[in-house]
Write a structure and sequence with these properties.
302 residues, MetI-like, MetI-like fold, membrane
Length: 302
């Protein structure tokens, strides 16, 4: 059976179509970035207002004990107003929390990087070698159903105390959502794009680098927005269970000393940090998708 060979002009049109699918004009790209950043900042502002109001309302409705339950104003006073009943000055309190935050960010960073790198490698292998996915994806999903609180002591017994355990616990939180979403993104490549690559002699790796990776970018960044606060949660869980380091480790000490102001300050601080990193991830996503295009990797059809 005879097969048709693409003409040079048809080939040029096909290549232009594929390039158009992964790039945007500079002006449109910057407008896309500015729009995403503006919407993110507006959403962030509205969320902060809603959370603050909900905080006040919840404490009021629950008639919570003022000694334990602190309002946003109480946290501000704890961090910035001198209290004669406390031995530490507000500056010392902020300095202590900052140092504790750096430790937690170090632990979270190890887990975040390890989880992202591991999930990218495994999802690429799953995509290129289908039998691997059939064999190991059910096992990965089974492990995902095990509560992290139950898994953490086992990880601690195997790896001991240290950065490896902190990274592994945080990496577990990051790894599974990224693995599932990246594999889904790689699998959702359009048939037209795959055919185009194969017509010009491309192999599986060419399809992966030229089409699948751009196509998976929205899936990747959607998972990254979940992974960033997840890494912080994993790091604090490690610190709370096994060490006296970082923000997670100090919570137990603060509870023992009835230092509820510090507990609420830690909660607010880690929440703000998670939101900041979430927002930064959104900005990076906007910049990357402005280059590749919101419909990166998808075939252009007329």
């Amino acid at each position: 059976m005879a097969t048709s060979t693409p003409t040079p002009r048809a080939g040029l049109r096909a290549r232009a179509a594929m390039n158009a699918s992964i790039e945007m004009p500079t002006g449109a790209g910057w407008r896309y970035v500015a729009g995403r950043i503006g919407r993110s900042l507006f959403t962030l502002l509205i969320s902060a207002v809603v959370l603050t109001v909900a905080w006040y309302v919840a404490l009021k409705l629950l008639d919570a004990n003022a000694f334990i339950a602190k309002t946003p104003l109480d946290v501000v006073k704890y961090l910035f107003v001198k209290n004669p009943l406390m031995t530490m000055s507000p500056a010392d309190i902020r300095h202590t929390l900052w140092n504790l935050l750096l430790v937690t960010l170090y632990h979270a960073g190890i887990g975040f990087v390890g989880g992202v790198v591991g999930s990218v490698i495994v999802s690429v292998l799953f995509t290129l070698i289908r039998p691997l996915e059939f064999m190991f994806m059910p096992l990965a999903m089974l492990l995902r159903t095990v509560p992290l609180l139950a898994m953490a002591p086992v990880i601690y017994l195997v790896l001991g105390q240290g950065a490896a355990t902190a990274g592994f616990i945080g990496g577990v939180v990051v790894f599974f959502p990224l693995l599932v979403n990246l594999t889904l993104g790689f699998r959702s490549v359009s048939a037209q794009s795959v055919d185009l690559i194969r017509v010009y002699g491309g192999n599986r790796w060419t399809i992966m680098t030229k089409v699948a990776f751009p196509n998976a970018l929205p899936h990747f960044f959607a998972s990254m927005r979940i992974a960033v606060p997840g890494a912080l949660t994993g790091a604090m869980l490690y610190e709370w269970l096994f060490t006296f380091q970082g923000l997670g480790g100090v919570i137990s000490q603060a509870k023992t000393n009835s230092n509820y102001g510090q507990i609420w300050a830690i909660v607010v601080l880690i929440t703000v940090v998670a939101i900041v990193f979430y927002t930064i991830t959104t900005f990076i996503e906007a910049a990357v998708l402005a280059k590749w295009g919101p419909n990166a990797g998808k075939a252009v059809t007329k």
